[in-house]
Amino acid sequence: MHQAIHRHHAAAIAFLTALLLPSIALAHGVVGDRFFPATIASDDPFAADELALPTISLGNHEEDYDFEYTKSIFPKFAVSFAGGYINSHPGPNASGWDNFEITPMWQFETDPDSEFVASAALSVDIGGSGARAVADRFTTYTPKFLFGKGFGDLPDSMALLRPFAVTGVVGFAIPGTSSASKAVQWSGAFEYSLLYLQNNVRDQGFSKFVAHLMPVVEFSMNSPTDGGGTTGTINPGLIWSGQYTQFAAEAIIPVNHASGDNVGVMMQLHFYIDDIFPDTLGRPIFGDKH
Amino acid sequence: MKTQLLLLAATVAAISFPAMAHAFLEHAAPAAGDNLHASPADVEMHFSERLEPSFSSVTVTGEAGDDEAAGTVVVSGTEMDLPLKKLPPGRYRVTWHAVSVDTHRTEGKYNFLILP
């Protein structure tokens, strides 16, 4: 009898304790010891609450002003909404809103020990949602595989390479019309984290500002399956990550003449909504934050 | 168009300041990769955000995996402190877990060396 009462008391105390203790939140861009920043030219593999506003691209006779908002629905499942305004030169007839794009994403693998994350997504570029002058009238569906891998598990003899990380995206664009070619879209980023170097490998005495800088080289390619040549850009630059925001600036270097004939620049201001509004907008609509 | 986007970004930035965020390690002593000539009395860590004491900790282990703590971890505000035994020359690993008061979790590990 007494043992049963004790068991009930123990269960009640455990239950109340669980209710009172805070749940540990999923961290935007953090896997184990690694922080992955949001990248501009290539999607990052995290299903987290974030806002990129604005992303400005200048060059190749065109100015683009884009935004992307990502909202977590369940833990590790998020939907992003993206759009943008294209201002082409010459003349106003080639300007207007681009199509809106919706992308549900599932972050199905997260391994802190190996600093590895993998996700699957489906981007739907909604045909006809943008201006006729600049946007396709047909819808394009792009299933994607995304991953990120940090190299913190390299041996001590290669310790200075541990701050390196890569992210990548491979997608297959399927237009909803036979007049446009399907295409393999492949993009990624090579990153070297000064914060990782400072905190996990060797303290270099960096200032707080410098420690939060990350040199990065991105690339973004499009290879049509109908035999058309690959086009794309390589984007070296810097990302500065703060507590709530990050700022990135990268060059846009065309890989061939078909990709453009001059070097441009792109910049992005990015907000970590999960950090800014941890108890409201920054948490999944359904389910715990675990 | 450009002005509208920039104004919206500025508005979001302006309302973001009262929040809390991930607790990133800003400074530690001994620090990552330090080569020391004597045993440190403790490991002191300073983070970018206030910590949740119940879920934040640090351990120091020697090459054999022995726990080298001389007491319990003290977590106060943005600081975490672990008193250490007197350590002989060798390599030591610091492993930390930090949960900020808004429950975001960060972690890390690094080595330091005590020279003979």
Task: Provide structural commentary.
The complex is a heterodimer of chains A (about 290) and B (about 120). Chain A has about 290 residues and is mainly beta. Helix content of chain A is about 10%, strand content about 50%. Chain A has helices at about 1-20, 195-200, 210, 275, and strands at about 30, 35, 50-60, 60-75, 75-90, 95, 100-110, 115-125, 140-150, 165-175, 185-190, 215-225, 230-240, 245-255, 265-270. In chain A, the strands form two sheets. A twelve-stranded antiparallel barrel of chain A has the order 3-4-5-7-8-9-10-11-12-13-14-15. In chain A, β12 and β13 (about 230-240) form a beta hairpin. Chain A is globular, with a radius of gyration of 22 Å. In chain B, β7 and β8 (about 105-115) form a beta hairpin. The model of chain B is unreliable at about 15-20 (pLDDT under 50). Chain B is elongated. With about 120 residues, chain B is mainly β. Chain B has one helix at about 1-15, and strands at about 25-30, 35, 40-45, 55-60, 75, 80-85, 90-100, 105-115. The interface of A and B includes residues 32, 195, 200 and 275 of A.
Topology:
The complex is a heterodimer of chains A (290) and B (116).
Chain A: H1 2-20, E1 30-31, E2 34-35, E3 50-59, E4 62-74, E5 77-88, E6 95-97, E7 101-111, E8 116-125, E9 140-150, E10 164-175, E11 183-192, H2 194-201, H3 208-211, E12 213-224, E13 231-241, E14 245-254, E15 264-272, H4 273-276
Antiparallel strand pairs in A: 1-2, 3-4, 3-15, 4-5, 5-6, 5-7, 7-8, 8-9, 9-10, 10-11, 11-12, 12-13, 13-14, 14-15
Chain B: H1 2-14, E1 25-29, E2 35-36, E3 42-47, E4 57-61, E5 74-76, E6 79-83, E7 90-99, E8 105-114
Parallel strand pairs in B: 2-8
Antiparallel strand pairs in B: 1-3, 3-6, 4-7, 5-6, 7-8
